[in-house]
């Protein structure tokens, strides 16, 4: 597990791909995991790695509050994709079946026997990975969508929200909840596939209806 060298272009690309459908390194709020990874990056990611750059700028805004973020700092190599080798100086002794020396040594010429063994292990490794069942992680999210004022057409606001149709998103029940001064907010339930839909994406899509929507908040978040 790991991102590789986050001071290299390759490491930043791995981070960018990892964050393509995630808001944070772990969970759904900023945590010490984000701080560990953030501090391992030498400079802001380039503009073409926009997922990593978005995350970097967001975590940077927590500079003064980073010590109070939840979680416990762990080694950098414990975060990131499971199929990327940790090159941050982790222990060389590993009993994990996935930790296989696939490339041999650079210091001496590889013998035919060693080459054959390496290729057999590589084939076994790929076969093992292919047989692992894909687990679809889902979450139930309750959203609070707030209008601008008491004159906002709430039926139209809800119509706009439900018009957001993407793979991995299913809208559920909804209701209007009074918030004061004659204003009501839309409280709407949805179920998402975690790898396809994140709260950042939902907020971006919903607040894009700026004629009706003032803001969106996550009222409840539960793993299914």
UniProtKB/TrEMBL annotation:
GO MF, any single term: guanyl-nucleotide exchange factor activity
Keywords: Elongation factor, Protein biosynthesis
Elongation factor 1 beta central acidic region eukaryote domain span: 102-129
Entries under InterPro entries matching the protein: eEF-1beta-like_sf (IPR036219), EF-1_beta_acid_region_euk (IPR018940), EF1B_bsu/dsu (IPR049720), EF1B_bsu/dsu_GNE (IPR014038), Glutathione-S-Trfase_C_sf (IPR036282), Transl_elong_EF1B/ribsomal_bS6 (IPR014717), Transl_elong_EF1B_B/D_CS (IPR001326)
Domain Translation elongation factor EF1B beta/delta subunit guanine nucleotide exchange: 138-224
Single GO cellular component term: cytosol
CDD domains associated with the record: EF1B (cd00292), GST_C_eEF1b_like (cd10308)
Pfam family, any one: EF1_GNE
Region Disordered: start-end pairs: 83-114
Residue stretches of biased makeup (Acidic residues): 95-112
Keyword Isomerase attached: no
Signal peptide stretch: none
UniProt similarity note: Belongs to the EF-1-beta/EF-1-delta family.
Role played: Catalytic subunit of the guanine nucleotide exchange factor (GEF) (eEF1B subcomplex) of the eukaryotic elongation factor 1 complex (eEF1). Stimulates the exchange of GDP for GTP on elongation factor 1A (eEF1A), probably by displacing GDP from the nucleotide binding pocket in eEF1A.
Subunit-level organization: EF-1 is composed of 4 subunits: alpha, beta (alpha subunit of the eEF1B subcomplex), delta (beta subunit of the eEF1B subcomplex), and gamma (gamma subunit of the eEF1B subcomplex). Interacts with elongation factor EEF1A1.
Protein name as catalogued: Elongation factor 1-beta
Gene name of the record: Eef1b
């Amino acid at each position: 597990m790991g991102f590789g060298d986050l001071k290299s272009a390759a490491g930043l690309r791995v981070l960018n791909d990892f964050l393509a459908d995630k808001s944070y390194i772990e969970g759904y709020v900023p945590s010490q995991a984000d701080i560990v990874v953030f501090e391992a990056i030498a400079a802001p990611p380039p503009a073409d790695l926009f997922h990593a750059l978005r995350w970097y700028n967001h975590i940077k805004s927590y500079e003064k509050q980073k010590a109070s973020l939840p979680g416990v700092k762990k080694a950098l190599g414990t975060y990131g994709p499971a199929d990327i080798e940790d090159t941050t100086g982790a222990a060389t002794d590993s009993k994990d079946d996935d930790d296989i020396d696939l490339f041999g040594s650079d210091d001496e010429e590889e013998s035919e026997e060693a080459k054959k063994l390496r290729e057999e292990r590589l084939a076994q490794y790929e076969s093992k990975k292919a047989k692992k069942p894909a687990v679809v992680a889902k979450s139930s999210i309750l959203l609070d969508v707030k209008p601008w004022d008491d004159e906002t057409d709430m039926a139209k606001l809800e119509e706009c929200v439900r018009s957001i149709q993407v793979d991995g998103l299913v809208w559920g029940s909804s209701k209007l909840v009074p918030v004061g001064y004659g204003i009501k907010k839309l409280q709407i339930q949805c179920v998402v596939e975690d790898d396809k839909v994140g709260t950042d994406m939902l907020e971006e899509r919903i607040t894009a209806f700026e004629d009706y929507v003032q803001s969106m908040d996550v009222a409840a978040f539960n793993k299914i």
